[in-house]
Amino acid sequence: MSAYTTHITDVLVVGAGLAGERAAIESASQGLDVIILSLVPPRRSHSTAAQGGMQASLGNSAMGKGDNTDVHFADTVKGSDWGCEQDVARIFVETAPLAVRQMSMWGVPWNRIVAGKKTLPDGRDIEDTKDKEGLITARDFGGTAKWRTCYTSDGAGHTLQYAMDSVVIKLGITVHDRTEAIALIHDGETCKGVVARCLRTGELRIYLAKSTVIATGGYGRLYGASTNAVINEGSGMSVAMNTGIVPLGNMEAVQFHPTGMVPVWILITEGARGDGGYLLDKNNYRFMPDYEPKKKELASRDVVSRRMIQHIRKGFGVDSPYGPHLWLDIRHLGAKHINTNLREIANICKNFNGIDPVNALIPVRPTQHYSMGGVRTNKDGYVYGLKGLFALGEAACWDLHGFNRLGGNSLAETIVSGMVVGKKIAEYTLGASLDYNYSQVMGFVKQQEERIKNLIAGKQGKENIYTIRREMEQTLMDYVGIFRNGPDLQKAVDKLQELYRRSLKIGLHSDGKWANPELATALRLPGMLKLALCISYGALNRTESRGSHAREDYPKRDDANWLKRTLAYWNEGSDLPTLKYEPVTITESPPGDRGYGESSASSAGDKK
Amino acid sequence: MFVQKTLTRNPKAELYYDLVELFSGFLLVGFLWTHMLFVATILLGSELFNNLSAGLDKYYLSYVGIPFIILVAFMHIFTAGRRVPTRYQEQKIIWRHAKMLKGTDTWVWVFQVITGVSIFMLGAIHVWVVVSGWPIQAMTSAERMHAFWWFYIILLILGEYHAGFGIYRQFVKWGWFPRKPIGYISKLITVIILSLGIAALFVFYTMAKGGGIV
Amino acid sequence: MSKRKLTFSIFRYKPQEPDAKPHMQTYQLEEEMGMTIFVALGRIREDQDPSLMFDFVCRAAICGSCAMIINGKPKLACKTLTRDLPSTITLMPLPVFKLIGDLSVDTGTWFRHMSLKTESWVHTSKKFDPKAIEEKMDNETALEIYEAERCVECGCCIAGCATANIREDFLGAAGINRVGRFMVDPRDERTGDDYFEVIGSDEGTFGCMALMACDDNCPMQLPLQMQLAFVRRKIAQAGLKAKTKVVTL
Ligand SMILES: Cc1cc2nc3c(=O)[nH]c(=O)nc-3n(C[C@H](O)[C@H](O)[C@H](O)COP(=O)(O)OP(=O)(O)OC[C@H]3O[C@@H](n4cnc5c(N)ncnc54)[C@H](O)[C@@H]3O)c2cc1C
Ligand code: HEM
Ligand code: HEM
Ligand code: SF4
Ligand code: F3S
Ligand code: FES
């Protein structure tokens, strides 16, 4: 097709993380033609960075005895603060054990049960029995009633992604890495594929497919301090939203992880606390039991993060040039444990902070970590608004996580949704045909070509991308963080609107030729600002507290008015999203008390 | 794959090369070290040296041993030598690479190639000279050493360097021991052998100079 | 303590540019506390030269994207602190891999090719049974597999290896280590013969001359010497036992 390289395939998967690759495998094994696009080689996707593990109720370990899918279901729903889709959660918990076992068959060297008696750091004695020896073991994670998180030392994501990619390679699935989807091609009803930019040469390419799948991961990098990889800029979400037809769900639900390491914001896995690590304040006092007598450090992430900020606000933070922080103490776990089961953490502490956690405290503060929100789909992964478009993984709002995701449920989600939604994609594709209108397709490419030309020529203005970007990061950090309130959120919305308008006047400072990195960011930035606006505007309008969305001016969960999901649409030419709402699917568990946290439904929390 | 290569490739060729490299290398190092011990018997007196020489002769060790060692040496040159970069650009890459990365073991290897090629030439001369002046006698040796002491010093240093790091390389490659300790041990042995060699050289040298006929 | 002025000398070259020549370009930068090469390059791109190409993804030494030659050594740039370096810092792209531009090289394609060559997936005749529980495995074995699996495909071992620099088809330490990973995995049903076929040549295990730059430079500190030797021994044993398949027409 004309000057542009065009690829035609059955299934086009945008994103080569765990979610994208698992879905691709499902289609490829049904004989469909699949192309995967990715910003980076698949094994560098952000999924590899996951350390802690993946939840599945195998119930093999002594502390997992009695675990089953119902318990996992209850934990997930409570964790989500009743914001999740319960039918999705049900499918999820039922499939997760299969996912773990299949990944085991594909090569993940899950840590296994070693029989014998052990004493936990808190003094409890447990015994793993001989009959279970060699089965997949599990560790403790926040917000779970049982030890359920399967792991490989602290390289769970790495081994999962390597095993997954090995199957992709085995099946001979085509992967175009260093290729960025920059626009969806559609006719208002059906998605036909994407316009992509090659990050090796800068050329634009056309991909046409019967089904297009968005599996592009999260948007952590909108925030100045995030545990996420630098490629997590939410481009897949904004590309979907740019159609004007596809809504993003619950964008105000942003997870902050309790233990980002100060000042580089690299994640210290929840496994550190799961294995027995404590949080200490400036007096080396373990404060969590005072706030959360039952779950202590292992309440859900939203709760622990809030408790930490509360404690810092009370003046118990440790002062540092990077602001106050708290300590994570794992010294008592001993050198052997730290250097095997928590080796990656030990390395991170040494490399980036020059400290050895065997005998030093780790400085930590809650840090942006995960996006519960994303491209809204139904329970089969069909994106709202466009046929032939699917989404899964962190990029999607399948809505397993509601307003707070449990640690270990995300890796599990990527693979489970890859299996479940993957099947649906294959099913749909087998029955679909590809017809497209040549000039319509060209219209989409030309539009991108035009944007690029204008950016290079500085036709719309000379705004600097890095300045705008820094201001956006700071705005979200300052006003749309762990605790939120009306006036601050309003400030954020105003500021982001201004930044969004400025982002339409970007001009490049370099020549923009070939795979120019400035151009790549310039193309993404307006979309990032749209996402930032969805987050802040959604948060401003949600006048209740639920899960990670904690409003100081509305500290109660409000099931009467807000047991519903935000859907944010972007109308062309607008500088604010349009919000709509839909009810949350409750099938088994009516809203109630989470059993930890600020006893969500009843009290006003503790605003100090 | 190319048809001509597919049809002629022996899938095990490179395994055999590697094994021949291993065994020939071992034998050569073993030979060189024993050789130096034998030569060093001069330190205990020329009588012992001459008796040893005669003894080896009597049991045909020299007649069988010398050709055998020459054969092994050729096997070694063929197998280890195949790793020597021959094309001009390869040479340039190796030098650039070694300079830029300053990897110790890479430099060791570069010198192994250089010393290998050098001892190929020097060793051939030496063997020719020794064999054509048969039998080996303390006095004839002493004369040769006196005249060509610089030749022997060079050959000694190059040979021991090549052998010492050669054996280190083999242990590292086949992993019977970790690098660090095996590095120390092979260096230690090399130093001992070098000292013995230099001492022997010195004795031979003074023997000839002092005209001290036994 | 007064802040150091750092001078970065950075390799610049865009292969697509018709008449561009490779050259070194210098940038000045004030050192900050805890500054890594990741932070420094970010500053240079944002404040001085937005066209500068380099790769980072995780910035936490997990993903293997950011290897480059830093003052002569292949390293992960994201975990290299400037305070450990002199005030003049020279950055070069990794050799062996195809240059994309400036400091950015195509490790992804190389490693996918390596995975294909070494058939880096579990070879099993078993079908997944959704109803069955998992097969048991000794925890020690699991840890042993993980030890080799920790490789992040950064390419430091390849770039540092002189053999890989002159022999295009050499699979390098990462490739040999990869085969070792599957050899210890009881789930992989490949026999010695199969492994020998994959790697029993100068492209694989016998191509290694023990230059040990891999062992010295691996940022994940994989025990590469022992791993390479383990594979060499196993492959040699397997090769000696294997039946030679001579092609006859
Ligand atoms: C530090 C850290 C630790 C974590 N630990 C855990 C844990 O222990 N347990 C757990 O359950 N979860 C954990 N998570 C969360 C979990 O890792 C992620 O949510 C999950 O891996 C996301 O997978 P994904 O497949 O959706 O996306 P990703 O793995 O992020 O993959 C996204 C893919 O999309 C591609 N892409 C993006 N945009 C484009 C575009 N425009 N065009 C083409 N390609 C594109 C990228 O190249 C990439 O291949 C952790 C997260 C972080 C940040
Ligand atoms: C005569 C000319 C010689 C040449 C050209 C030569 C060349 C080489 C080369 C190029 C190597 C490196 C092989 C590799 O990279 O693995 C090598 C290794 C070695 N050489 Fe020599 N060499 C010579 C003589 C000798 C002699 C006389 C000895 C014994 C003292 C010797 C002992 C070794 C050993 C033990 C190794 C290590 C082999 C291995 O790694 O498997 N070489 N030689
Ligand atoms: C294969 C048959 C060989 C025989 C019979 C032989 C014999 C001898 C003899 C008799 C001497 C004493 C000095 C002399 O007479 O010149 C000597 C010395 C020496 N040989 Fe050889 N040699 C052999 C091979 C080699 C090889 C292959 C090397 C090198 C790699 C070598 C290195 C030396 C050195 C360095 C000395 C001097 C010893 C010293 O410094 O004290 N020889 N050899
Ligand atoms: S073996 Fe080490 S150096 Fe080589 S690619 Fe893997 S992690 Fe990098
Ligand atoms: S540097 Fe190269 S030669 Fe072997 S020991 Fe390492 S692969
Ligand atoms: S950026 Fe991931 S290893 Fe350096």
Summarize the structure.
The complex is a heterotrimer of chains A (608), B (214) and C (249). With 608 residues, chain A is α/β, with parallel strands linked by helices.
CATH superfamily of chain B: Fumarate reductase/succinate dehydrogenase, transmembrane subunit
**CATH class type of the largest domain in chain C:** Mainly Alpha
For the sheet with most strands of chain B, the description reads: none
Mean pLDDT of chain B: 89
| Number of E strands of chain C | 7
Work out the radius of gyration of chain C. Answer: 21 Å
Q: Count helical runs of chain C.
A: 9
Biggest sheet strand order of chain C reads 2-1-5-3-4
Bound molecules: flavin-adenine dinucleotide, protoporphyrin IX containing FE, iron/sulfur cluster, FE3-S4 cluster, FE2/S2 (inorganic) cluster
Main attributes?
heterotrimer, B: 214 residues, mainly alpha, 3 helical TM bundles of succinate and fumarate reductases, 9 helices, 83% helix, globular, C: 249 residues, alpha+beta, Ubiquitin-like (UB roll), Fumarate Reductase Iron-sulfur Protein, Chain B, domain 2, five-stranded mixed beta sheet, binds flavin-adenine dinucleotide, binds protoporphyrin IX containing FE, binds iron/sulfur cluster, binds FE3-S4 cluster
Account of the 3D structure:
The complex is a heterotrimer of chains A (608), B (214) and C (249). Chain A has 608 residues and is of the alpha/beta class. In chain A, 35% of the residues lie in helices and 18% in strands. Chain A has 16 helices and 23 strands. In chain A, the strands form six sheets. In chain A, strands 1, 2, 7, 8, 9, 10 and 18 form a seven-stranded mixed sheet that branches. A five-stranded mixed sheet of chain A has the order 19-17-11-22-23. Chain A has a five-stranded antiparallel sheet with strand order 13-12-16-15-14. In chain A, a hairpin with an 8-residue loop joins strand 22 and strand 23 (578-583). The model of chain A is unreliable at 600-608 (pLDDT under 50). By secondary structure, chain B is mainly α. Chain B has a single domain (2-210), classed as 3 helical TM bundles of succinate and fumarate reductases, CATH 1.20.1300. Helices cover 83% and strands 0% of the residues of chain B. Chain C has two domains: 5-105, Beta-grasp domain (Ubiquitin-like (UB roll), Roll); 118-125 and 137-241, Alpha-helical ferredoxin (Fumarate Reductase Iron-sulfur Protein, Chain B, domain 2, Orthogonal Bundle), CATH 1.10.1060. Chain C contains nine helices and seven strands. Chain C has a five-stranded mixed sheet with strand order 2-1-5-3-4. Chain C has a two-stranded antiparallel ribbon with strand order 6-7. Chain C is elongated, with a radius of gyration of 21 Å. Chains B and C meet through helix 2, helix 5, helix 6 and helix 8 of B and helix 5, helix 8 and helix 9 of C. One protoporphyrin IX containing FE binds next to helix 2, helix 4, helix 6 and helix 8 of chain B.
